[in-house]
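A common beginner's mistake is to predict each chain separately and then try to dock the pieces by hand. The better habit, illustrated here, is to supply every component at once so that their relative placement is modeled jointly.
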Amino acid sequence: MDPTGQMVLANRLADGQVVFLATDGSWVEDIARGALARDAVAAQRLLADAQLAESRNVVVEPYLIDIRDAAGRRQPVAFREAIRAAGPTVRTDLEG
Amino acid sequence: MYRYDEFDHTLVAERVATFRRQVARRLSGDLSEDQFKPLRLMNGLYLQLHAYMLRVNIPYGCLSSRQLRQLAFIARRYDRNFGHFTTRQNIQYNWIKLDETPDVLAALAAVEMNAMQSSGNCVRNITADQFAGRAQDEIEDPRPWCELIRQWSILHPEFSYLPRKFKIAVSGAPQDRAAVKLHDVGLYLRPNGAGVIGFEVIVGGGQGRLPYVGHTIREWLAKEDLLSYLEAILRIYNLGGRRDNPQKARIKVQVNALGAEEFRRLVDEEWEQIRFTPQLTVPRAEIERITAYFADPAWEQLTDASATVARQRSADPAFDVWNRANVVAHRRPGYAIVNLSLKAPGIAPGDLTADQMDKVAELTDRFSLGELRVSHRQNLVFPDVQQVDLQALWQALQGVSLATPNIGTLTDIIACPGLDFCALANARAIPVAQDIGRHFTDVAALQDIGELTINISGCMNACGHHHVGHIGILGVEKNGLEFYQLTLGGSSGEDASLGDRLGRSISAAEVPVAIEAIVTRYKALREGEERFLDTYRRVGLEPFKEAVYGQNPPRRQAVA
Ligand code: SF4
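With all components supplied together, the output reads:
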């Protein structure tokens, strides 16, 4: 399936938590609340905002990931990013 | 055990204070990530897929109950209630926060632990035989030498920026339980022809993308020459290692490019220059001072209690099975070495929860003179258990799921964190180990199969030692899906060998089926007491290839 858009994912500097850039420039943990860029121009704008946040030491290593629609929910296309977004597939008994 | 002296305390305390300032400067923006990253790595702090990961040294695998309690405290207070023991006898925490890391390091320092040089291009944690000082087959205890090397290598000004990381392992026994030949430098304590104990020196072993078994460049080195000879090796490497290409920057590439003979010649030439440098000649008094820390503990005068244990074993088959798999003979009469398996079915290999840590610490005090060990196979060891206590210990371990009788069997799996945690991974490793663990639960069948190691890595970096598993499993990525490449015939022992690739990669779902096919074929082919590895070495790859791919080839389809 073609990606339905792109989002920016990064680690938050202070605690390393995986976060997504939201439309208001904040960083959110919930993929559903992050900004979804539907075309290349919007994606580049999102990435530029993220890099600004990186230079301001809010997040580390932001980059764009492809998102597809999975039964109405946002799902990263790449397996690695899906694990980053959802957390490890093991030790779910010990969520903190 | 070694205890910090005032220099160690000062060094570690100053390091914590320095890192606290560095973290504050990073959080305030005075340091960029590019500036900060090497600083955090020097303190063992990585940024992984989900969070920061802190790697804590457990020097040559030795741990006290007090330290383990502190590790439990850290897991509870700063992490998600668990830690992961690695193939380098370290512990890793997966959910550490940057702003809390200085507090974690301070908590470690309070129990004489640190994370210095657990990352970066420097000499890493020195590893050793987990049965050091206790094994019946041991020639000499390697721990004092490990400690000496640790002190020599920590903050060594010349060797803090090597071409790549540098790993040293030491064993004092003929049976190699420390994968010595797979290290940048491996040392075996050995007698020479005159019966004087010294070191056999092996260089250029390693795994990763370019795996090599190390070469012996010196059959015997006098103990007093150890540091000068190591200094010479490191100097030749530091000058000649491939700094231009990180993939080729390990000493193994240099040794194999030059040839072991030429490398030895360069080392000897250098060594002749520095051999008698006073700083590199360790005074006998200093060796004795360090050795005293590893003196025998307060063992009681006991007689061998094997007859009692034999009676208990014949009365209780489950206890018998656990003894056979997990208990090892001790050099002192009346004592035994006990392995605690961190490989219960369905558990991530090497993981221990905070509650388990506390319980193990309590049992360490009760049954093992307050000391335990971590093995490179990601298990724990009680080194000093009285034989008459074995049954009580076994019962207590059952209560915390640490009495799985599978040491050395195919469910005693090494697995790296893989794609569930590691930023470099191509595929997951833990779920594959869990699936195999769930597939093979019949203890009698496992013991019938006998010694068979399975090692799993989530990428070519080979932290899960897949090259030297009797069966190795390497995770690869193809078109965004996880596949697994099997190798057979690896060994990390004194007969070290690298595994041979079986054939095309298979999906995760197919792995337990393929292992079952390999095991079935082995059982059909084995002669007498042959281990899997012996049979493999006798018959080669073909019969196993046919068993896995032959009549019923695995479906080539990944389950995402
Ligand atoms: S082998 Fe690869 S995936 Fe596994 S821990 Fe090492 S770097 Fe990570």
